[in-house]
Amino acid sequence: MRRSFIALLSVSIIALATMGALSRPDAAPLPVVTVYKSASCGCCAKWVEHLKAAGFPVEVHDVADASEYAENSGVPVALRSCHTAIVKGYAIEGHVPADLIKKLLIEQPKIAGLAVPGMVTGSPGMEGNRKDPYDVMAWSSNHTTSVYAKR
Length: 151
Prior knowledge:
By secondary structure, this protein is of the alpha/beta class. The chain has helices at residues 2-23, 42-53, 67-72, 98-107, and strands at residues 33-37, 58-62, 84-87, 90-94, 113-116, 135-139, 145-150. It contains 4 helices and 7 strands, in the order αβαβαββαβββ. A 7-stranded mixed β-sheet has the order 2-1-3-4-5-6-7. The radius of gyration is 21 Å and the shape is globular.
């Protein structure tokens, strides 16, 4: 009888612990990504959908000239693309993959932001019948650049 009680108690404790673990979210909610883009840019809208599919809440601002936001965010001219986003103080320029934005937010390196310069076929929002290799660039406040990731 005592063994049955101990076994039942053990199973109950494990079940309660498991239910508690399942009811808790695995991670903190992702921060809002604020995007500045042209209203007529289809690839920018697709990139926003890519972010949403990855779990990011997104606040979109359709603007007349997105380059103004790149300038104000300190994005080096050589790294500019078609839209600029801000998340937790970092600038995100162009079609940066959501998984790398998540990595950036976890690691919190001392950089100003990430960029995928230009309009690379196969990058998020620029999907097509091929996938070109590309570099995701990081830059610092003094405009020193480095490769953050290769895709």
